[in-house]
Design a protein that fits this description.
Elements: H1 2-17, H2 25-28, H3 31-36, H4 38-42, H5 46-55, H6 64-82, H7 88-98, E1 102-104, H8 111-123, E2 129-133, H9 136-152, E3 157-159, H10 166-173, E4 177-181, H11 182-192, E5 208-212, H12 214-220, E6 226-234, H13 239-246, E7 254-256, E8 263-265, H14 267-276, H15 288-303, E9 310-313, E10 316-321, E11 326-327, E12 331-332, H16 335-344, E13 351-359, H17 361-366, E14 370-375, H18 382-389, E15 393-395, E16 405-406, E17 410-412, H19 415-430, E18 436-439, H20 443-455, E19 461-463, H21 471-476, E20 484-487, H22 507-513, E21 516-520, H23 527-534, E22 544-551, H24 555-560, E23 576-577, H25 580-627, H26 630-638, H27 640-647, H28 652-684, H29 686-690, H30 695-708, H31 710-724, E24 726-728, E25 731-733, E26 745-748, H32 758-772
Parallel strand pairs: 1-14, 1-15, 2-4, 2-5, 3-4, 5-14, 12-26, 16-22, 17-22, 18-20, 18-21, 19-20, 21-22
Antiparallel strand pairs: 6-13, 6-26, 7-8, 9-10, 10-11, 17-23, 24-25
Helix pairs in contact: 6-8, 6-9, 7-8, 8-9, 13-15, 15-16, 25-28, 25-30, 25-32, 26-27, 26-28, 28-30, 28-31
Length: 773
């Protein structure tokens, strides 16, 4: 009978967890064999344990026998190095990762150790592993934390972050396991595509990627391509235009669309601007430049909000990555918009740049022959993981059943009434001594709420993009008796909240009170983000509770489902709404937002597939130029007289390198020009839809012939440079011939597009279609 109940339970679990839940029976069947090895391995010395792990490197295949061995060895190594004995569910996660799944493990269930054991397992198969995370802090923390385990298993490990030099990066990537933020690893790929000497490459060929917070990285981050830019010259901010635009009023001088993505001048606004700028005509050919400056300044003024989209810190505009709630280090908006925001905030303009290359998360992951991942919320995006990455989800049950209480949403008519209710809830719970974690939508909201709590005599600790460097210490203490912590986006914070604080001193006292109470100040645009916030409570069977407050005037509803049904009544005194129709409207708004984000992802992928194919072709040619003497052979054929002349003045290796640098420069320059051309095409492609042409087909029709011109043009320009470059006592002067590479590089935070684009029209149609359903 118990066996029958177990089988029925497994079937029920599979039914509940669909879509995308892989069968775990195979892995569960191996757990007894892993347990049987525990006593035997416990008798080995550290050296003997390392030697036994090393024997796995000699195995020709890696099947169930080897899965059992690495899990048993990993459990023993963790017990010795960390004083942590891996639970069976962690070993299920390890086996799921080693067989190429995205494993779903709840917050606090030990994903970090499961991922480390899987990375070691891949390394012991002779494969180079990159463990990608959502931020640099977690990359370093996890690599250092797990290093003693790797050491006992005889596996080398390191990490990359923005502080490392090129030589330090090369050394880090030379280890068998390298941790790094997905953006950092991606930008190293882009930087490697610009080198002119093989010895300057930092990344060897990739083999395995294990993606931490896989849904955030593979789904949320995938909407934002990684873009590398190089300095061209110093930008000039148009302070005159910024000062004029600052005085414009919404509804009178300009309008915005319901999505808050586009802004435009009214007739009255255009008249005011023209007069303020000296009586020019913005819509005459002579005013075209000023019109462009006005439009971008208006976008900065009307659509980008300080402390929501960016911070001003240390005299610089610093962008906030919305999906992480953190400052996006070394990132900018495309130049015109960046300069406009700098002018708006009256700070010095940064260098102007040109886009050198870009890569999507899909393309980055496609470089790895094997990909696996782990997260607490994978099932919700199982179809996307299958569609874009061909990955299946394996749901790992918790070690201890979750007993957290998830309350229904508390809905209010207005944000102000909601805020008063949140303050009252915090006061009531705080008086009992229970720790409270409040999840807000952005920096501005977190600071506004913190200020109100302080005035109300409820001191709190704030975690947002201003102080994300201290995040580990703040989160670690969020479970202390009486603690109130206000945080922006919790996804990827990576630190467990232990009841009683980091030392667990008051654990029992806090547990008896009901554990950590989580409050969401609004529903997020994704149900996964809601789940990640809730998941901070109820860790490893702890007691806890979670509740979201919402309003029918929250940004989520206004942007995605503003047509609220009539007849929904609120309590006259509190503003609270108990009508089920209000909850349905909020759920509907969230589904619309999720649909829009999915369509953005699909459109990004549809357009970039062709670009990635073209890039792959050109990279093969670039790699041949980089690693062989092909450039010298081509220029010797095309300009034999000049080649012989230079051969008398330069040694053979130097001449080969000169030819290589010339051809690589023109290849990189033409690829950058091609990307700019494709960007222009995409910005105007939606006009093709008006002419009843398919925008994607039209994009392909224009992009393919242009690409085929690149290689012949590289050779043509290279011959011209080769023949015209001057040769002095110090050799050939490529700089004087125009072969100059950027003195610095940075990255752009592009999102889908700061302005109207080809698929923006599609998204508006998607929203309207979803609203009709």
């Amino acid at each position: 009978m118990p066996a029958l109940i177990t089988r029925m339970g497994k079937r029920l679990r599979k039914l509940i967890e669909r879509p995308g839940s892989a069968e775990l029976t195979r892995y569960e069947a191996l757990l007894p064999a892993i347990g049987d090895l525990e006593a035997e391995l416990g008798e080995l010395s550290d050296t003997e344990l390392t030697e036994r792990a090393g024997k796995l490197r000699l195995e020709a295949e890696f099947g169930d026998t080897q899965l059992v061995e690495i899990c048993a060895l990993g459990r023993e190594a963790a017990k010795r190095a960390l004083d942590e004995r891996a639970f069976d569910v962690q070993l299920l996660g390890t086996m799921g990762l080693l067989t190429g799944h995205v494993v779903q493990m709840e917050t606090g269930e030990g994903k970090t150790l499961a991922g480390a054991l899987a990375a070691a397992g891949y390394a012991l198969q002779g494969k180079r592993v990159h463990v990608t995370t959502v931020n640099d802090y977690l990359a370093r923390r996890d690599a250092e934390w797990m290093k003693p385990v790797y050491d006992l298993l005889g596996v080398s490990v390191s990490w990359v972050d923005p502080t490392l030099t090129r030589d330090e990066r090369r050394e880090a990537y030379a280890r068998e396991v390298t941790y790094g933020a997905v953006s950092e690893i991606g930008f190293d790929v882009l930087r490697d595509r610009l080198v002119t000497r093989v010895e300057d490459l930092v990344q060897p060929e990739p083999e395995v990627a294990i993606v931490d917070e896989a849904d955030s990285v593979l789904v949320d981050e995938a909407r934002v391509p990684l873009v590398m830019a190089g300095s061209v010259d110093h930008a000039t901010a148009d302070f005159e235009v910024a000062n004029v635009v600052r005085r414009l009023r919404l509804g009178l001088h300009y309008e915005t669309d319901s999505d808050g993505r586009n802004a435009w001048l009214t007739a009255a606004g255009a008249s005011v601007v023209e007069k303020a700028l000296g009586g020019i005509d913005l819509y005459d050919e002579s005013g075209a430049d000023r019109l462009a400056a006005v439009n971008v300044a208006l976008h900065a003024h009307a659509l980008l909000t300080r402390d929501v989209d960016y911070l001003v810190r240390d005299g610089k505009v610093q962008l906030i990555n919305a999906s992480r709630g953190r400052v996006a280090e070394l990132q900018r908006w495309p130049d015109g918009l960046q300069a406009a925001v700098e002018a708006k905030e009256q700070v010095a303009a940064t260098d102007r740049g040109e886009i050198l290359d870009s890569i999507t998360v899909q393309a980055l992951m496609a470089r790895y022959p094997q990909v696996a991942g782990m997260t607490g919320t994978a099932v919700a995006v199982a179809e996307q993981l299958r569609e874009f990455y061909k990955l299946e989800v394996a749901v790992i049950p918790p070690n201890t059943p979750n007993i957290r209480t998830d309350e229904p949403d508390r809905i209010y008519a207005s944000p102000s009434q909601k805020l008063r209710a949140i303050e009252a809830e915090i006061r009531e719970v705080h008086e009992t001594g229970r720790p409270i974690l409040v999840g807000t939508q952005d920096v501005a909201e977190s600071e506004e709420l913190a200020e109100k709590l302080e005035k109300a005599g409820l001191p709190c600790v704030v975690l947002n993009a201003r102080n994300d460097a201290e995040e580990a210490a703040i989160i670690a203490e969020a479970g202390k008796y009486g603690a109130v912590t206000v945080s922006t986006q919790m996804a990827g914070r990576g630190t467990d909240i232990r009841l009683g604080g980091a030392d667990g001193k008051d654990r029992e006292r806090v547990a008896e009170l009901g554990g950590l109470h989580v409050i969401g100040t609004a529903r997020y645009p994704s149900s996964r983000l809601d789940g990640q916030l809730r998941g901070r409570s109820g860790r490893q069977g702890d007691p806890g509770s979670a509740v979201f407050f919402a309003s029918l005037n929250d940004e989520l509803v206004l942007s995605n489902a503003p047509d609220v049904p009539e007849g929904i009544a609120a309590d006259e005194e509190t503003g609270r709404i108990t009508d089920p129709a209000a909850q349905r409207q909020i759920n509907h708004a969230q589904r619309v937002a999720e649909g829009v984000h999915l369509e953005i992802h699909r459109n990004t992928w549809r357009y970039t597939r062709l670009i990635e194919h073209q890039r792959a072709e050109l990279l093969k040619h670039r790699d041949e130029l980089l690693r062989t003497e092909l450039a010298a052979e081509k220029l010797k054929e095309a300009a034999p007289k000049r080649y012989e002349e230079l051969a008398e003045k330069l040694d053979a290796d130097a001449l080969v390198q000169v030819c290589r640098e010339i051809m690589l420069f023109h290849l990189d320059e033409l690829w950058s020009d091609h990307l700019a051309y494709l960007s222009d095409v995409r910005e105007s492609i939606h006009l093709r839809a008006i002419a009843r042409e398919t925008p994607l087909d039209e994009f392909h029709r224009l992009a393919i012939p242009e690409f085929h011109k690149i290689v012949p043009t590289i050779e043509e320009r290279s011959v011209k440079t080769f023949e015209e470059a001057e040769v002095g006592d110090d050799g050939i002067d490529l700089g004087a011939a125009g072969v100059r590479r950027p003195s610095s590089t940075w990255t752009y935070l592009v999102h889908d597009s700061p302005f109207d684009s080809d698929f923006e029209q599609t998204l508006k149609q998607v929203r309207s279609l979803i609203k009709r359903k």
